[in-house]
Design brief:
The chain is mainly α. The protein has one domain. The chain has helices at 6-36, 40-76, 80-105, 109-115, 123-135, 137-152, 156-180, 185-209, 225-257, 263-303, 307-334, 336-344, 348-364, 368-380, 384-397, 399-410, 412-446. Helix 1 (6-36) runs parallel beside helix 7 (156-180), helix 10 (263-303) crosses helix 14 (368-380) and helix 14 (368-380) packs across helix 17 (412-446). The radius of gyration is 21 Å and the shape is globular. The two termini are 26 Å apart.
Length: 455
């Protein structure tokens, strides 16, 4: 990580992570695709529950990123004992949090899905889907934590194998359980739960058997308040990025639920926005995967006081990501309508709303390149406050107000405009913050013996 050319080491770490992210995005879309074959209401139900699933993932990434980045920095500085304790604290904490969510989510699932935006017509499907998702929460959280730990140890290939195996299994099980056994939306959720359990088993086996990897031993689970502060300080940006995104999606679903006096239009709006957002997430997952390949290099080099290399890696990744997004946005723009039709072509209203939303988001898609790398860079080097602000901006600081204001002014068009407007504002904010961070890295590179107070 310290000496190989960046255009070799980062792609080597990033390719397995990109594949993992794409597979995860694909099986999220697979649920949407197969459930959409049932009805528009079922499609809307999955879109609503996805926000709850995103909160589970956000908490997992908070713990996984927070402990993983600190593990990488500890290894870079030669503090092996601290690294062993950090992986244990991250893993067992995630499992405990997952158990709490599993119980809480199944106490009153009907009230929960209504709270997060389900219409009366899609409540039964949403409840059927949510039950299994919450039951799988402990294994889902630990899978994402272990995925991050392996990446930050430079073993992204093992992480890819674990996550991808579960994802492929999910896509196989979806049609079998939904249609073959007639389970409907519950079948889609059960397929996801089984896939998460499979990924959990594979990742745990790999981590505890492969030489050179830090193992998960309960004897190393010796948490301290200081350790949790470090994990949270570094990991909270992930909560900002994904947790606030989930909250924004809840706001979006609740606004879409009342966008029209016609319940048919409301269900179509929820389904359409869910489909378009998931496709954009699929495209963005490649960039996030590339950024996650950049993170171990940034954290390790920062721990080794190679600040110039951190900065060079940031610019390299930002430029590559921007070019990739420009190409993908151009292709998707041409086939926007066909993409939405692939999921729910039977409903012309879903196609119309979804196509408009997708095209608007594709216009601002290239801004994600430097935005994501800014978030990944600040998080990896321990600039927790800056990273939290950046990660919260796109789908929190700016999206929530956009969702509340623009639909009230422009109706469905305002709903479609909300995310692109937030993207532009978030990019500007990230650019301002990163300018300051990069200057600090320059100063630290010139005087590496001086400790500069972060944030």
């Amino acid at each position: 990580m310290l000496n190989q050319p960046l255009n070799q080491v980062i792609p080597r770490l990033a390719v397995p992570t990109i594949i993992s992210m794409l597979v995860t995005a694909v099986y999220n879309m697979a649920d949407t695709y197969f459930v959409a074959r049932i009805s528009t209401e079922a499609s809307a139900a999955v879109g609503v529950v996805f926000s709850a699933m995103a909160i589970i993932q956000a908490l997992a990434f908070t713990i996984g990123m927070g402990s993983g980045a600190n593990v990488s920095q500890a290894l870079g500085a030669g503090r092996d004992e601290e690294a062993r304790r950090l992986v244990a604290v991250g893993f067992f904490t995630a499992f405990a949090v997952g158990l709490v969510l599993a119980v809480a989510g199944n106490i009153d699932p009907e009230g929960l899905v209504v709270l997060i935006g389900a219409t009366p017509e899609c409540v039964p499907d949403a409840v059927a889907y949510a039950r299994y998702i919450f039951m799988a929460a402990p294994f889902m959280m630990c899978s994402f934590v272990m995925n991050n730990h392996l990446r930050f140890q430079g073993m992204a290939m093992y992480a890819m194998i674990g996550i991808s195996s579960g994802g492929i299994l999910n896509m196989i099980l979806d049609p079998l359980l939904i249609f073959g056994l007639g389970m409907g939306t519950a079948g889609a959720a059960l397929a996801t739960a089984i896939s998460q359990l499979t990924s959990f088993a594979i990742l745990l086996t790999v981590a505890n058997t492969q030489p050179g990897l830090l193992r998960y031993r309960f004897s190393d689970f010796r948490p301290t308040a200081a350790m949790y502060r470090k994990i949270l300080y570094t990991g909270v940006p992930s909560l900002g990025r994904q947790g606030i995104a989930a909250i924004a999606t809840i706001f979006l679903n609740r606004v879409a639920r009342g966008i029209s006096p016609d319940p048919i239009v409301n269900n179509a709006a929820i389904a359409a926005m869910s489909i378009s957002n998931k496709f954009v997430m699929f495209v963005n997952s490649a960039v996030i995967g590339f950024g996650q390949g950049f993170q171990p290099v940034a954290a390790f080099c920062y721990g080794a006081k190679r600040y110039r290399r951190v900065k060079d890696a940031y610019w390299y990744c930002g430029k590559v990501a921007t070019v990739i997004l420009l190409c993908l946005a151009a292709v998707a723009m041409v086939f926007s309508e066909q993409i939405i039709r692939l999921f729910r072509g039977e409903d012309p209203m879903v196609v119309s709303i979804g196509t408009g939303a997708l095209r608007m988001q594709l216009v601002t898609l290239p801004l994600w390149g430097f935005y994501v790398m800014s978030n990944m860079c600040t998080q990896s080097i321990g600039y927790g406050f800056s990273s939290t602000v950046i990660s919260s901006a796109r789908q929190g600081i700016f999206l929530i107000p956009s969702v509340l204001i623009l639909p009230a002014l422009f109706g469905i068009t305002g709903l479609q405009m909300a995310q692109p407007a937030a993207d532009v504002l978030a990019f500007i904010l990230a650019a301002v913050i990163m300018r300051r961070v990069l200057r600090r890295l320059d100063d630290m590179d010139r005087t590496s013996d001086i400790q500069i107070e972060k944030d």
